[in-house]
Each structure stands twice: as C-alpha cells, then as structure tokens.
Amino acid sequence: MKAIAYKKFGNTEVLQTIEQPMPTIRPDQVLVKVKAFSVNPMDWKIRNGAMKLMSGSKFPKHTGVDFSGIVSDAGSAVSGFKIGDEVFGVVNNMMKEGASAEYVAVPAALVWKKPDNISYAQAAAIPVVGTAAVTAIGKMGKINSKTRILVNGATGGFGMVLLQLLKQHGAHITAVTSSKGVAYAKKWGADTVIDYTSQNVLSQKAMCDVVIDLSGKMGYKNARAIMLPKSIFLNVTPQPIEILFSMVNNLFTAKKHVVVLSNPGIKYTNILLGALMNGLEIEINKTFPFEQTKEAYQYAEKGGFTGKVVVEVN
Ligand SMILES: NC(=O)c1ccc[n+]([C@@H]2O[C@H](COP(=O)([O-])OP(=O)(O)OC[C@H]3O[C@@H](n4cnc5c(N)ncnc54)[C@H](OP(=O)(O)O)[C@@H]3O)[C@@H](O)[C@H]2O)c1
C-alpha cells in the first residue's frame, strides 16, 4: 500500500510517497481503509524536528494524526465495530505513527462511528482540534455570560470548534483573527471581533477573565496587559520550560499561566459527538488528493485560511 513518509527532518520537501506492507492488526485493533486525514500544525512541528525529544529520530516517519475511513478488518477482541463501518479516529502515538496511508491499524478504543450528517473530510478534521477545544474549556473554570474570553488566532481549526463550544456555554467572546476570518468568527459565536492586521489587541484595557492564544505569537507576558487581576492565560503551545514556569508563577500571581495538553479519548469525543448533533459546524477550507499531500502541507503551513485543510485518500 501507499503511504506518505519522510526519512529526515525538514520542510515539506522531505515528504515522499512510499510503498510499504499492509499493517497487521493486534486483537484489540481495527484496520481502517483511510478516506481522509487532516493537516495539523503538530504534524509539521514533528516533521521539522522541533519535537525530536518526544518523537525520537528513527525514520521513516509518517505524518497526520486524525483520520476517517471504513473498517476493513477487526481484531478478535474488538466488539462494537464490524467490517464496513464508517469511522473516524486518531493514531495511537502521534509522535511515532501517522495517518497518511491507505490503511492504518489502530486500537478500537481510538476509533468512533462517523455521524451520518458529516463527510469523511469533516470527520477527519475533528479529533485533534475538537479534543483540544474541550480540554481548553475544562481549564477555564466556571463559564457564564459574564465570563469574558479572548481567543487569539480564532478562526483556524482549533478556534473554529472552540468558539462554537464557548458560545454554547454562553461566554462573552472576543475573537482575534485576520481580515479573512472576521465573518467566520461572528458566525461561530464571537461577540466582538478584532482584525489583528489593523488593530493591536494588546492596546486595549485589561478586560479578560481568560486569554487563550492559538497563534502562538502573543505569549503570557504580553497577554498580562489585557488580563483582569484574577484571570487565566491558556498556553496551547508550551515549551517544557514553560510547564515549570507555570508551577512557580502561579504561586505568586492571580494572573495564572495554564498549560493545555490534550489527548483524544472517548470522554472528549462523546462531547464532540453531542455538539455535532447540535449543529457544530466543521468548515473545510480546502481538500487535496493523496498525491498532493506535500501541496496540502505547503498550503497549510503558509496560513491565511479559515477552518481546516484535509487530504482525501481514494
Ligand atoms: N496543546 C494542545 O493540546 C494542542 C492541540 C491542538 C493544537 N494545538 C496548537 O494550537 C495551535 C492552533 O492550532 P490550529 O489547528 O487552530 O492552527 P491553525 O489552523 O494554523 O490556526 C492558527 C491561527 O492563528 C492565526 N494567527 C496567525 N498569526 C496571528 C497573529 N499574529 N495574531 C492573531 N492570530 C494569528 C491564524 O490566522 P491567519 O492564518 O489568518 O493569520 C490561524 O487562524 C497550534 O499551534 C497547534 O499546534 C495544541
């Protein structure tokens, strides 16, 4: 079968199509014929070597974490899935495995039935950003209509789900996005939208109970200027040193620095399946065929789009 892999760390040029044997399944696993996998910033952070402490340096490596497809085989210990089921899920170890192949073998515990009302592309787009959004909301404390939340980088994949879930919680949302994202931010629930290409969000007075930075460009130290005396900054792109920093920092200030590290699992997926039933919108900005996986990453890594980029596999 065909798979997208790379044999050294680098930019999109290291991605190549390789032939490899079909994966075999363990008793607890299902074999999924992949129909789509989504493109996430995590993929290129691993590929360019920024996370080599966790990913290791053994090659070839595959790319892609979340996928959708059709069950084509199930291990002897698997119940709840049969051949032909339409599913979506995540690979077991995102640092060492990848969804960018015609078939993937994954534990049945990391696969869920695809709702009928969404496409394969939409299903593949949900697990990573959806789990991250649910995890982040869990770190925000009690949310009601008086809670003022600023989402910086609000109309990428993560922001798309986060805005809609926060709206369901009734929060007051300020979304920061580029001009292209303004209409989407309003549609997904923002009460106020700031276009970062024409307005500096940090020049506002302190007004936020929660600031979450999805762009990775604001940082806690800058965000403090717009945070209320008792408030939370959520860091979704933490360096190891920042995890230590947050422990010490939070002993001495009521402006907390909180790290978000999400891990897709059944608890979160049930919340997301419920949200999908209630109309959670999954915007696919662009799909690419499997043969153009490199182009899909080039497009996504350039930025400047709303929603998700997905690769479709025939
Ligand atoms: N910790 C976790 O568990 C976890 C899980 C999932 C994702 N993440 C991380 O969360 C981040 C967001 O993920 P994503 O999938 O939403 O990525 P994404 O789709 O690339 O979204 C990032 C957004 O940031 C915006 N942006 C860029 N520069 C900005 C600036 N100066 N000010 C404000 N916004 C700016 C981009 O808008 P434009 O392109 O229009 O400029 C884009 O919409 C990534 O770093 C990802 O690795 C963390």
Plain-language structure description:
- With 314 residues, this protein is an alpha/beta fold.
- The chain folds into two domains: 156 residues, Quinone Oxidoreductase, Chain A, domain 1 (Alpha-Beta Complex); 120 residues, Rossmann fold (3-Layer(aba) Sandwich), CATH 3.40.50.
- It is 28% helix and 28% strand.
- It is built from nine helices and 16 strands.
- The strands form three sheets. Strands 3, 5, 6, 7, 8, 15 and 16 form a seven-stranded mixed β-sheet that branches. Strands 11-10-9-12-13-14 form a six-stranded parallel β-sheet.
- The longest helix has 19 residues.
- It starts with a strand and ends with a strand.
- The mean pLDDT is 96.
- NADP nicotinamide-adenine-dinucleotide phosphate binds next to helix 1, helix 3 and helix 4.
- This is NAD(P)-dependent alcohol dehydrogenase.
- It holds the Pfam family ADH_N.
- One of its GO terms (molecular function) is oxidoreductase activity.
What is the C-alpha radius of gyration, as a whole number of Å?
20 Å
By DSSP, the count of extended strands is 16
Structural class from helices and strands?
A: alpha/beta
Under CATH, the homologous superfamily of the largest domain reads: Medium-chain alcohol dehydrogenases, catalytic domain
Per CATH, the class of the largest domain reads Alpha Beta
Domain module tally: 2
CATH architecture assignment of the largest domain? Alpha-Beta Complex
GO molecular function: oxidoreductase activity
InterPro entries: ADH-like_N (IPR013154), Chloroplast_QOR (IPR052733), ER (IPR020843), GroES-like_sf (IPR011032), NAD(P)-bd_dom_sf (IPR036291)
Protein name: NAD(P)-dependent alcohol dehydrogenase
Organism: Flavobacterium magnum
